[in-house]
Automatic annotation (TrEMBL):
Pfam families: FA_desaturase
Superkingdom of origin: Bacteria
Name of the featured protein: Fatty acid desaturase
Transmembrane segments: 20-42, 48-66, 179-197
GO biological process, one term: ceramide biosynthetic process
Domain Fatty acid desaturase: 45-278
The organism of origin for this protein: Glacieibacterium arshaanense
Entry-linked InterPro entries: FA_desaturase_dom
GO cellular component, one term: membrane
């Protein structure tokens, strides 16, 4: 990108900020806490459904911040970056930054190639409207989430031929910290007198709305892109305030820019987008006007 950006512009788009990283994490948890507080104060079907959608999107937000941590963008200090990513973003959603980093860097090296580990997420599209409706129903009813979590837990338990001690150690290594963080979250809510918020407004969103918006994100980012063009191996999707609130938090919609310069922190991607536009380069990017357009593209008939 040195061909298009001068030194000052390169510094502006690549500068990392611990303050920005901490702010995004605090914002994410503040939104989650506010949604839970709303239901605790005024429990009814409408507030519960709204909170599930808000929290499910913020759980995707935590996954996005894990992604940012995998790229080193949450803090200027790598140890702090990893701590923030692991303990405040990954473990609450049963994830792990270092394992994700290894997987994700392979995706960047092999984007849209046969060896791309993410190819299966976008390859089935376009599909039929009936097919995508079935996928949405499976996501919202928890079938997708339950299947994925069950596979994750079974893998962490090892195989029946392993000694029990080895299986316990394997589970502890893979999911021990995640379980500890989640037990602490459940205990904290119980201490406040609202134990039921943990299963209702943490586990249910994780298995339902989080699955749906993750699917939509995956479709938007790489489905039906021009894999022979390095400017178009990923897609940027316009997101208004509603889209950012319920589908695409923390600049995740700027995915074409991310693949062009993977070391640009997510909070600098809007600036990079504006600079590309000012230089007349925006038409080179693969873009869509919104997430409704994503679903129409994914299932045209």
């Amino acid at each position: 990108m040195n061909t298009y950006f001068d030194r000052a512009e390169m510094r502006a788009v690549t500068e990392r900020s611990t303050a920005w990283g901490v702010f995004m994490i605090v914002h994410c948890w503040a939104v989650i806490a506010a949604a839970m507080a709303l239901v605790a104060w005024l429990p009814n079907p409408l507030t519960i459904l709204l909170a599930i959608a808000i929290i499910g999107t913020r759980q995707l937000g935590l996954a996005i911040l894990v992604h940012e941590g995998a790229h080193g963008g949450l803090a200027t200090n790598e140890k702090l970056n990893l701590w923030l990513s692991q303990w405040l973003c990954a473990y609450p959603t049963f994830s792990e930054t270092l394992a994700y980093r290894r997987y994700h860097m392979k995706h960047h090296r092999l984007t849209q190639m046969r060896e791309d580990p993410d190819l299966s997420l976008s390859a089935p599209f376009p599909t039929t409207r009936a097919s995508i409706k079935r996928k949405i129903i499976r996501d919202l009813t928890g079938q997708t989430g339950f299947k994925q979590r069950r596979a994750q837990f079974m893998a962490a338990l090892g195989t029946p031929d392993m000694a029990m001690g080895d299986r316990v150690r394997l589970f502890g290594a893979k999911l021990g910290r995640a379980f500890a963080v989640n037990i602490a979250m459940a205990a904290g809510l119980a201490a406040l007198g609202y134990w039921w918020l943990y299963p209702l407004l943490w586990i249910v969103p994780l298995l339902t709305w989080h699955m749906l918006v993750t699917r939509i994100r995956n479709i938007a980012e790489h489905a039906m892109v021009h894999d022979a063009d390095p400017w178009r191996i990923a897609r940027t999707t316009h997101a208004n305030w509603l889209g950012r609130a319920f589908i695409a938090p923390y600049y995740v919609n700027y995915h074409a820019e991310h693949h062009i310069m993977l070391y640009v922190p997510c909070y600098r991607l809007p600036l990079m987008h504006r600079l590309l536009d000012a230089k007349g380069l925006k038409p080179k990017l693969e873009t869509l006007p919104g997430y409704a357009a994503v679903l129409r593209m994914a299932a045209p008939a």
